[in-house]
Design goal:
It is a single chain. The chain is α/β, with parallel strands linked by helices and about 400 residues long. About 35% of the residues lie in helices and about 20% in strands. The strands form three sheets. An eight-stranded mixed beta sheet has the order 5-6-2-1-7-8-9-10, with helices on both faces. The chain has a six-stranded parallel beta sheet with strand order 13-12-11-14-15-16, sandwiched between helices. The protein has a two-stranded antiparallel ribbon with strand order 3-4. Strand 12, helix 8 and strand 13 form a beta-alpha-beta unit. It is globular and about 65 Å long. The relative contact order is 0.11.
């Protein structure tokens, strides 16, 4: 082995950087190819860069000094892979841009293949179709890490075009939860011998960022809901729960932070128990909100997995979440509370219980501080061990 690994992604930095940090600490050289021409504040780190040219561009190290400090060595080099944007509205132009993108993917794959990496790890969701051509031209050492294997709101046994290419190339597939593994078993054509679960640990690069004051004034006491807002994330359940609580809320507000849409937001806007921050939340602002929140609330109605616990726990903040498989794999009674999915009354009881018993909240805070020791499967050292075994032979 050359002790050289490449990651290709256009996000997911919260779960990627800690693994890179482990690999670099073990003497591996890591190249990260970020698939965007303009990078603006990725998840869990600070990086601002706009590539001057299409194709692969090396980002100057001074542009990601904070990431280098977090990783702890100079073994990480970051590149952009920039492509022309697809043009969909005019068929002739669309066909031409697709040909150009295919050629750009071919040239990028040539560059990556020439590096003779021990593994090239593509990190994606099932619907990132623009990565199909790049994957097609990569050598046979490509590994694909998938955060979502299908649309969990409308699941289909037919693989997406990207997943079909993954199946065709017989790539090793790394998933991050047992629930995702259960999902992918239902998709046609999957060879489960090539599928491995290796969960991600806490997104601890967030903890390396300092706080930043928000333009909006945060309440003195609050619980927090954050992330991109979609109806399946259960804001309506949270709103129904709060409406029943009355004095049990004890002066606490509910802060809703993030872009997106849900019909219930129109009603929430007129409820003074809620504070809406309906915009993009910067990393340092998120650090501030999580650190000062009494708890984070996740009333999701469906999901395969979520990075909310991994984002929240580095700050010792407990979570109240619905008892979906993606949550109950990581949230135990020691570090949070679970309630039956869709049951607003049970959610209200959990919130009330945690507010009325601050000692319980403090105990959860202490347990979260030793999370990786309590739950070794989420320790990044163990995760890295498993990852290297996958690279070698695809199974433990």
């Amino acid at each position: 082995m050359n002790r050289k690994i490449a990651f290709i992604t256009e996000g997911f930095m919260g779960s990627t950087l800690p693994l890179i940090r482990q690999l670099c600490s073990r003497g591996y050289n890591v190249d990260l190819y970020y698939c965007k021409r303009e990078i603006h504040e990725p998840e869990a780190c600070e990086l601002e860069y706009c590539a001057e040219h299409y194709g692969i561009n090396t980002i100057p190290r001074e542009m990601y000094h904070g990431i280098t400090q977090y990783v702890g060595t100079n073994n990480l080099t970051i590149y952009t892979f920039s492509q022309i944007k697809p043009f969909r509205s005019v068929p002739v132009v669309r066909n031409i841009t697709q040909l150009i993108m295919k050629y750009q993917s071919y040239k990028a794959a040539q560059v990556i293949n020439a590096e003779n990496y021990d593994a090239v790890n593509l990190i994606c969701n099932y619907d990132m179709m623009h990565m199909i051509d790049l994957l097609h031209y990569l050598n046979g050492n490509a590994i694909v890490s998938m955060h979502e294997v299908w649309n969990h709101a409308k699941p289909s046994i037919k693989p997406s075009k990207l997943l079909a290419e993954i199946i065709h190339k017989r790539c090793k597939i790394v998933l991050f939860s047992d629930h995702s593994k259960s999902d992918i078993t239902q998709i046609d054509g999957i060879n489960m011998d090539l599928v491995k679960v290796n969960p991600f640990g806490l997104f601890d690069s967030y903890a390396s960022l300092s706080e930043s004051e928000l333009p909006e004034k945060l309440p003195e006491k609050y619980l927090l809901f954050f992330g991109y807002i979609r109806p399946y994330k259960g804001l309506g359940i949270l709103h129904d729960a709060i409406k029943t609580m009355g004095d049990a809320l004890n002066g606490y507000k509910i802060v809703i932070a993030g872009e997106g849409d849900d019909p219930v937001l129109e009603e929430i806007k007129n409820d003074d128990r809620f504070v809406l921050i309906p915009r993009f939340i910067h990393n340092r602002e998120l650090v501030t909100m999580i650190k000062h929140a009494y708890a984070v609330v996740c009333p999701y109605l469906t999901m395969s997995q979520s990075g909310i616990p991994q984002t929240t726990f580095p700050f010792g903040t407990p979570i109240i979440a619905s008892d979906l498989d993606g949550f109950n794999e990581i949230i135990t009674h020691e570090v949070g509370m679970l309630f039956p999915t869709g049951d607003s009354q049970s959610l209200a009881q959990c919130i009330s219980d945690l507010i009325q018993h601050p000692n319980k909240r403090e105990q959860m805070h202490r347990h979260i501080a030793s999370f990786s020791q309590r739950y070794p499967k989420y320790d990044w050292g163990n995760i890295c061990d498993n990852y290297l075994k996958i690279i070698v032979n695809g199974h433990e």
